[in-house]
Design brief:
By secondary structure, the chain is α/β, with parallel strands linked by helices. The chain is built from eight helices and 29 strands. The longest helix has 12 residues. The radius of gyration is 21 Å and the shape is elongated.
């Protein structure tokens, strides 16, 4: 089976970090989030993957190459003009057509049994399966409603026949299983959406569209706050992602903390709780770092404080700097 990872977006809400690196390369536990997604797919036997690119594509391709170092075969789908979700899927048709395929967003951290999702999709004879979950509030949910049999009955103004009263509005996770017939519904070389332009037509045509419920860990990194929240969850052991900790000598460490390779930490520095330091970071005397993420090569000058903040690659703080609730990038 093949999969597509959607990675062409700008990551606007994570700026200025995403002016430096594309959103799929934003580190989660010191590894690009895209690397975690590829590992998830590979763990379920999905080894042929296409990834669409638009913003800073060379940063992604230089890191992953042909995928062989990560145990997969990667195909790159370049979009000189961004095409939207459906438009991007259409452009990848030569790679994906001919069999059931999976599509996943590149900005989600999720602990999920994809094999079961795919198996259930095929057993139901579904034309489309959307992985969904309960939202924390009605406002958080998407305009997607399912009935008691998990069949999708309403979406973005389109409804199937005979909608029951007891439907449930759900949150779409950005994970979906599709059949190749969907390509017939998407025009080529045009900006086109799935939930806005493709799925409503499938619903009106009474095709079998189903929801697959996910009750395990899931969170996107759409904002700086959600990025910090994800790390707090992961450092607490949620999400099931691997951690590679390199604890150096020096400093007072208050767990949970993740420290990258070749970091230098002064004996009088205080690190933690809920801190991630990337590789090659330097932390000076009497520095305090709490609830923050510092990317590779960050330098924190003497007596500086970093709290509830994210520092991008090679950011340098002068002595006595106070970085509270800030997002800083070169």
């Amino acid at each position: 089976m093949k999969a597509m990872i959607l990675a062409a977006g700008f990551g606007t809400r994570l700026r200025p970090l995403t002016l430096q690196v594309p959103k799929p390369m934003v580190p989660i536990l010191n590894r690009p989030i895209l690397e975690h997604t590829i590992h998830l797919l590979r763990s379920h036997g999905i080894n042929e993957i296409t990834i669409n690119l638009h913003h800073l594509p060379e940063v992604i391709t230089d890191h992953f190459g042909d995928g062989s170092d990560f145990g997969v075969k990667l195909n790159w789908s370049h979009e000189p003009e961004i095409l939207g979700t459906a438009g991007g899927i259409k452009k990848a048709q030569p790679f994906l057509e001919g069999e059931t395929f999976l599509v996943i967003n590149s900005d989600v951290v999720v602990d999920i049994d994809l094999s079961k999702i795919i198996s259930d999709h095929k057993a139901r004879g579904s034309a489309l399966t959307l992985v969904v979950r309960e939202g924390d509030s009605p406002e958080q949910c998407d305009p997607i409603e399912v009935n008691e049999n998990d069949r999708i009955v309403h979406m973005v103004g389109a409804s199937s026949m005979n909608i029951p009263d007891d439907t449930t509005r759900v949150l779409f996770t950005g994970i979906q299983v599709m059949e190749p017939e969907i390509f017939d519904r998407i025009p080529a070389n045009k900006f086109y959406g799935t939930t806005t332009d493709v799925f409503p037509g499938m619903l009106k045509d009474e095709l079998p569209l189903f929801a697959a419920w996910h009750t395990g860990y899931w969170k996107d990194i759409g904002t700086v706050q959600s990025y910090l929240d994800v790390h707090q969850d992961l450092l607490n052991g949620r999400g099931g992602l691997p951690q590679e900790n390199h604890t150096p000598s020096g400093g007072h460490i208050t767990p949970p903390v993740l420290i990258g390779k070749n970091c230098t930490i002064a004996d009088t520095a205080n690190i933690g709780p809920y801190v991630v330091l990337g590789d090659n970071c330097t932390v000076g005397d009497h520095v305090v770092v709490e609830h923050s993420i510092c990317w590779n090569g960050a330098t924190l000058g003497r007596d500086s404080q970093v709290k509830n903040s994210v520092l991008g690659n090679k950011v340098t703080l002068a002595e006595k700097t106070r970085a509270h609730n800030q997002t800083l990038a070169q």
